[in-house]
Amino acid sequence: MQLAEFDYDLFVIGGGSGGVRASRIAAGLGAKTALAEERHLGGTCVNVGCIPKKLFSYASHYSQDFQDARSYGWVFESEPKFNWATLRDNKDIEISRLNRVYATLLANADVQFYNERATLLDSHTIQVGQQQFTAKEIIIATGGWPFVPDIPGGEHAITSNEFFSFDTLPQSALIVGGGYIGVEFAAILSGFGVKTSLTIRGSSLLRGFDTEIADVLTEEIEKYTTLIRDNEVQKIEKRSDGKLLAHMRRGEPLAFDCILFATGRKPNSHNIGLEAAGVEISADGAIKVNSDYTTSVPNIHAVGDVIDRLALTPVALAEGQILARRLFGKTSRPVQYDIIPTAVFSHPNLGTVGMDEKTAREKVTNVLVFRSKFRALRQTLTGGQESTFLKVIVDGDTDKVLGAHMVGADAGEIIQGLAIAITAGATKADFDNTIGIHPTTAEEFVTMRTPSP
Ligand code: NDP
Q1: Does ligand 1 have an atom closer than 6 angstroms to the CB of 187?
Q2: Cα 365 from Cα 89, distance rounded (Å)
């Protein structure tokens, strides 16, 4: 009998969204596959990202819902109280369940799982705990890790990672950074009753999103969070009473119970043997890959947050799937990076797909913009002033819808549906010919008739 040249056809390092998906697809196509993960299965999304964050987002919105309920006729004998430990522990139970689901998925797919750290020894050899294996193909899907700028006293700050398992809820918090995590945590903490401030080094939140949409959301966020613009935390000092003093680039130091950095994430590309295997990384640590997700070494590939594309779970899933299919004999449609729907789970939500207005004006000569800003029906009885804002960007020459953006309740759910239409190449006439569902917020997307300047 001829001995196999390698122990595995595929070895995947990293058990997050991209790695698990790639390994299951590969095994399903007949590849002898193994996956190593040193922590819990599910990666950032399941353990310290999308899932616990969304659960916390639901939890924090109850404070508003309880207030609104009175206008809808509900009477409470006493004020509802929030118990942080109950939420945190219930969340932990759900995350453990998901970890087990992931393990079962791997086992059912015949993927050999090693709950160990794996490092490359050379382009085909992997050290896994005390064992060594060889593999014909290797996929690196090690994700990313929150980045805290190197400032004096930075060790007193936390990131979203630590917040998920906090012992007690702080009374006051400063969030640094106005991207996805900063904006989402501002809503979450405020909803829990934490006195929340958010500081950004520039003048606006959510750089890279449609500016008008970001501005509308900023107005909403400023209703519950103190926004400190054009400033930076330069030093953190821990006072004897336990408070953290943020020394700012401008103005007096500010005292908080907690300082949370949401200043982006760095790829997890260090100390996994990339140098030994000859895999090139860029200056910011991202693994360099070509359009097929292959690194500078032909049999080593990478997907997800460890490469320099979009750090979003569904993108990692798509990349992992496409790569595994290609390696083991199937073709797939490539990821359309210019039409990636995404949502920020702030209060209210922000949802977006396709081009923002600025990009559209750079790429297309005749841009039409349709806008609608209103107070949603649910707000009418409560006197709530939350704005809902919808925006559709159209190529006036071809009538093709280039982008759709929204701030408002359930924007993520609504934009997901529109993303199908936009991915399929829908025109504004298709939107106009679509019958609305009344009364909904989403029906506005099919009733906007007049472009605005
Ligand atoms: P983002 O890249 O979204 O935002 C980082 C923020 O930090 C920006 O406001 C940036 O400012 C600021 N910043 C960066 N460096 C510094 C610094 N040295 N000092 C002060 N401010 C700084 O990162 P996040 O951490 O919010 O999230 C990481 C990624 O995770 C996201 O990009 C996204 O891909 C993913 N994610 C997705 C979610 C979703 O789908 N709902 C939810 C959470 C995360 P500036 O604009 O000036 O550069």
Answers
A1: no
A2: 54
Q: What's the CA-to-centroid distance between 395 and ligand 1, angstroms?
A: 30
State the closest ligand 1 atom to the C-alpha of 265, by its place in the atom list counted from 1. Answer: 28
Would you say the CB of residue 177 lies under 6 angstroms from ligand 1?
yes
Count of C-beta atoms within a 10 Å radius of residue 380: 10
- C-beta separation of 260 from 154 below 8 A: no
Q: Tell me whether residue 155 is exposed, middle or buried, using C-beta atoms within 10 angstroms of its C-beta: 0 to 12, 13 to 18, 19 or more.
A: exposed
Q: What pTM does this model have?
A: 0.96
pLDDT at 41: 98
- Report the pLDDT averaged over residues 398-421: 98
The one-letter amino acid at 194 = V
407 and 349 Cβ atoms separated by less than 8 Å: yes
Per the listing, tokens 């947050």 go with 305
Relative to beta strand 350-354, strand 254-256 is unpaired
How would you write 136-165 as a 3-class SS string? EEEEECCCEEECCCCCCCHHHCEEHHHHCC
- The answer, yes or no, to whether any atom of ligand 1 lies below 6 A from the CB of 207, is yes
Verify whether ligand 1 is closer than 6 Å to residue 188 (CB atom): no
Catalytic residue among 40, 301, 405, 438: 438
